[in-house]
Amino acid sequence: MMSGLDRSSSVESSAKAPKRRVLIVLNDADLSGAAVLEGVEWARVESAQVVFLQLPSHTGVPVLDPVGGVAMPGVHVAHAAQDRTDRRAAAALRAAGKAGLDAWVVSADEACGSADIAAVASKQRCDVIVIAHAGD
User: Fold this and answer.
1) What pLDDT, on the 0 to 100 scale, is given for residue 82?
2) Residue 92 and residue 26: Cα distance in Å, rounded?
3) What is the pLDDT of residues 37-81, one digit of tens each?
4) Given this model, what pLDDT does residue 6 score?
5) What span, in angstroms and rounded, lies between the C-alpha atoms of 42 and 51?
6) For residues 8 and 14, what is the distance between their CA atoms, to the nearest angstrom?
7) In angstroms, rounded to a whole number, what is the distance separating the alpha carbons of residues 30 and 82?
8) Is 46 exposed, middle or buried (0-12, 13-18, 19+ CB in 10 A)?
9) pTM reported for the whole predicted model
10) Cβ atoms within 10 Å, residue 75
11) Maximum distance among all alpha carbons in the chain?
12) What angle do CA 102, 103, 108 make, to 5 degrees?
């Protein structure tokens, strides 16, 4: 059991500790929304700041119909993918704002592997990385 003196020194030392940060990865997966929910809740409980890492969208190859015509030109696919990515980031920021958290978005210019994500987390001084994936 802690005495009043022990408790106050504990509170004082925790007040001096740097604020925690969580990196939440926003990717193309439908599971990205789950990462936002889990990460924002963790940050809320821990009174942490939130950094959203916006990964570039995978545009894929334009679909060809059997006659050989392109169903959608590549530039339109890229714009649609970017719009989807921007909407995902805006929704994530709204979720963090509703939880009363400080949050911001950083973007990756190219596809990121786990080492790249870890490097971003280190650069942003994050304590935790939250990413959702299908487990494949």
Assistant:
1) 78
2) 8
3) 999 999 999 999 999 999 877 645 444 455 555 555 567 777 777
4) 43
5) 13
6) 10
7) 15
8) middle
9) 0.74
10) 10
11) 80
12) 160
21 within 8 A of 46, measured Cβ to Cβ: no
What integer pLDDT is reported at residue 79 of this predicted model? 77
**Element containing residue 25 per DSSP (H, E):** strand 21-26
Amino acid, res. 30 = D
Amino acid in position 62: P
Distance CA 129, CA 57 (A): 20
Other CB atoms closer than 10 Å to residue 47's CB: what's the count?
A: 11
Distance CA 111, CA 53 (A): 12
E strands of the chain, at which residues? 21-26, 49-54, 103-107, 128-130
pLDDT confidence of residue 11:
44
**Quick one: pLDDT at residue 108?**
86
- Whether 53 contacts 119, CB under 8 Å: no
Decide: 27 and 129 in contact? Cβ < 8 Å: no
Q: Are 62 and 70 in contact (CB under 8 A)?
A: yes
pLDDT per residue as tens digits for the range 89-114:
999 999 999 999 999 999 987 767 88
The amino acid at 69: G
